[in-house]
Amino acid sequence: MSDMAIELRGIDKSFGLVHANKNINLTVRKGTIHGIIGENGAGKSTLMSILYGFYQADSGDILVGGNKVTIKDPNAAILSGIGMVHQHFMLVENFTVLENVMLGAEDSQILNTSISKARVELKRLEKEYALEVNPDALIEELPVGLQQRVEILKALYRKADILILDEPTGVLTPPEADHLFRILGQLKDQGKTIIFITHKLREIMAITDEVSVMRRGEMVATRKTKDTSVEELAELMVGRRVLLRVDKGEANPGAVKLAVENLTVRDSRGVTMVDNVSFTLRAGEIVGIAGVAGNGQSELLEAISGIRKAVSGTVLLNGRPIDVTGHADPGDLRSRGLAHVPEDRHHVGLVLKFDEAENGILGYHNDKRYLNGVFLDTKAIQADAEEKIRKYDIRPPNPRLKTANFSGGNQQKIVLAREMERGPDVLIIGQPTRGVDVGAIEFIHKRIIEMRDQGKAVLLVSVELDEIRALSDRIIVMFAGRVVGEREPDATEGELGLLMAGVEGRKEAAE
Amino acid sequence: MSNPYAKLPAWAEYGLIPLVNLVVAFLVAGLVVLLVGENPLKAAYHMINGAFGRGEYIGFTLYYATTFIFTGLSVAVAFHAGLFNIGSEGQAYIGGIGVALACLWLDKTMPWFVVFPLAIVGSAAFGALWAFLPGWLQAKRGSHVVITTIMFNFIASSLMVYLLTRVLKPLGSMAPQTRTFEAGGQLPKLDWLLSVFGLDVGNAPFNVSFLLALLAAFGVWVLIWRTKLGYEMRTMGFSPSAARYAGMKEARITVIVMMISGGLAGLMALNPIMGEQFRMQLDFVQGAGFVGIAVALMGRSHPAGIIPAAILFGMLYQGGAEIAFEMPSISRDMIVIIQGLVILFAGALENMFRPAIGRGFATFGRRFPVAAQRGA
Fold first, then answer.
1. Cross-chain residue pair A305–B245, CB shorter than 8 Å
2. DSSP of A392-441, one letter per residue?
3. How much is the pTM?
4. What is the tens place of the pLDDT at every residue in A161-185?
5. Which residue ranges does UniProt annotate as crossing the membrane (chain B) (predicted)?
């Protein structure tokens, strides 16, 4: 028996002209947690999809336990003992835990026997790996952390010895993530091998034994975790030195620029997403809204920026009301000094099929400087785009290039350039660095702090707690649509984590 | 990985792929001809010869193409704003009222160049009116334009039957049509244009509305890529959420775009009414509105693609009639089959050959990486 769980030799994969994986070699030792880290688009997901049989490699060999295997589809992967926990769970929401676990692994057409067998097996797995979950609970009623546990159980039920976890902590609160790490530790102690994909350096340092770094489709380095550092890994990922800490001076809060009072917003199904939220935002400060994704932050931003109608409440911009419950017009709000970098740049902030210059005027297309009567002044638009490209170092520096062909970081810079260059009084930013490479994160953070230092009011929403803590002058925590607490930026991660999980909030509300 | 298809150079994207699709469509059509027991090569010869063999044939081909340019543009304009206007047929039909009214009113007293502008305004206005209601219903009530425009086609059809049998028909006539227009209601032929190439237009009704169609194509290009409204339309078409974020008035744009689309469809009525028959007959549109959908699809909703696509369909119409005439075992329905195949391969199965062509480019690209990068 080989002590290698998985060996990849010379894996190569192209999608048309895109060379996603170039001659990848990777060795994962049995009974270890092996991290794979890299920026978005570095080829991590492609590599794992090849290993799990979603794609076929153009060339190269896969060895599992020392034997060469062909993995032509996920079933073949499962038979080789490879299980995968996807970033977006593959669970049937209105099935029970038990039904989900046995789905696709039933013994016969008659379910009863399979169910009782599965129940026994599930109990055994739960006990062996300390993964308690009620087998008869419906998935939709379980919190995200437990749903993820069901995914892990699914893989174990199929006798997986090697578990691939793709960005598993993206949807978890910090306490849930800690719990996941403990589970992974136990699985390792039981002899399982775990491949852990992430772009968060801290997680790599916390739980992995070895770490491999990918950059632009290549495997650039593999290190023992204890012999490396966050700085070295970041440098390997980006290919140059990066500043991970944000330098910023004291805030100098001035007049109230944005006042939100008792704002309530429902989504299209009538579910209350923002529940009676009030806060103020002053000139020269950054207020961060922390919370696990889906706790009303998105709807809050949309209501303030006039995209989504609120049910009740008032919002004052520079002391004048915004008609949030009626006909707030995003275009009008822009001219009143409110700029908005939306969370979803692919569907909201940009039109991916437009070229860079066309996206540079989105939302400002009524501005006289871009128009000749009813005609677009293409020269002015082009010149404007070129200037922003220079100022924000957008690459490649081609205003005629289709926006979809820019990297995530550069797309975000296109949005930021458009929204920041007007010198708005209030800037609201959702997920400024989601899907953005480390190099661009540094640049974006600097710009946000510059805005603050110029006396602008910045409202920041992010699911990255590190980002919130690094940038904010005040932190508001949202849970289930309500503001459950306000903290200084020096609040510990544990304290904020409990608030985000709604624990502390309930206590405070009860007092 | 969000885009599994490789990015191809522009010439392959807009030239090679449509060409491959077209060739396959004709190959399959050839098989059908073979099944009927005829020689596909002979059919192809009659098709090409019938469409381009003589000045007169070319005149007919371009006459049909004129009609399809208008309806193709109509569909394309709506398509850029994310609206699928299936109602060009009905809008063109109703547009005929505008043409007929202008002609019936002034044909005896005014020359064609006075009547023509009025007829242009009339046809566009009536077509736009017929598209306004579905547009308004979509904007204010959320009734889907695909449904409402189809229903409006039927309403238009019934309305025209009523008008042509009761109101616009001259007394004592049995035919459901207006009276024949005098000289002022007849558009001059473009015989001089063909004679530049040494061709004789003969009996073909190739008339000045062809020039209007080319003008409209240029106008549509300006509208979509050079005006603020076009910018808003495209934003809405690509991403309604981005349009909302940018503060664009979705309802207003929907209504305006539908009216422009309907107006372009209405212009189509000039060609058969003032250019060929010199009277408005029952059912003069003859499905051109639906062909417009195929033309817009094939032309990628770009005027520069719509014009050749319209000429291609003009060729199918004219050449197809010739096949039916020369080869009795092939009926006119054959043309419908070929059209269907073109639509199938150029529209519905647009991406069928793309992966293979993409792979070809990738292999080529790996061997000559520099050239490939420049191409991309």
1. yes
2. HT-SS--TTSBGGGS-HHHHHHHHHHHHHTT--SEEEEESTTTT--HHHH
3. 0.81
4. 999 998 888 778 788 888 899 999 9
5. 12-37, 57-79, 113-133, 145-164, 204-224, 253-274, 280-299, 306-324, 330-349
CATH H-level, domain A256-344+425-510: superfamily: P-loop containing nucleotide triphosphate hydrolases (3.40.50.300)
Map out the domains of chain B with their CATH numbers. Answer: 39-328 (1.10.3470)
Rounded Cα gap, residues A352 and B55, in angstroms: 46
Rounded to whole angstroms, the Cα distance separating B303 from B305 reads: 5
A16 in reach of chain B (CB within 8 A): yes
**Tens-place pLDDT, residues A446-470:** 999 999 999 999 999 998 888 899 9
Query: Using 50, 70 and 90 to split pLDDT, how confident is the model at B322?
Result: confident
Residues of chain A found within 8 Å of residue B228, distances taken between Cβ atoms: 365-366, 371, 374-376
Domain A4-238 is of which CATH architecture?
3-Layer(aba) Sandwich (3.40)
CA distance B149 to B88: 8
Report the SS3 class of residue B331.
coil
Tell me if chain B has a CB within 8 Å of the CB of A334: yes
Distances (CA, A) of B161 to B90, B103, B288: 12, 19, 18
Taking CB atoms and an 8 Å cutoff, what residues of chain A touch B351? none
What is the Cα–Cα distance from B46 to B40, expressed in whole angstroms?
Answer: 10
Which residue, among A52, A362, A378, A419, would best test binding to B if mutated, counting the most B CBs under 10 Å from its CB? A362
Q: Pick from A16, A350, A374: which is nearest to B227 by CB? A: A374
Q: Is the pLDDT of residue A383 over 80?
A: yes
The two three-digit tokens of residue B145, written as one number = 């334009």
To test the contact with chain A by mutation, choose from B17, B229, B239 the residue with the greatest count of A C-beta atoms within 10 A, namely B239
B76 has pLDDT over 80: yes
Question: What is the predicted pLDDT for the residue at A465?
Answer: 85
Q: Do A103 and A92 touch, CB atoms closer than 8 A?
A: yes
> Tell me: the pLDDT tens digits for B29-55?
889 889 888 899 998 999 899 999 999
- Chain A interface disruption, residue of B3, B8, B245, most A CBs within 10 A: B245
ipTM here: 0.84
Query: At which residue do the structure tokens 């029970």 appear?
Result: A96
Phi, psi of A373 (to 5 degrees): 65, -125
- Identify all chain B residues contacting A374, using CB atoms and an 8 Å cutoff: 227-229
List the domain boundaries for chain A: 4-238, 256-344+425-510
Q: Residue B267 and residue B126: Cα distance in Å, rounded?
A: 9
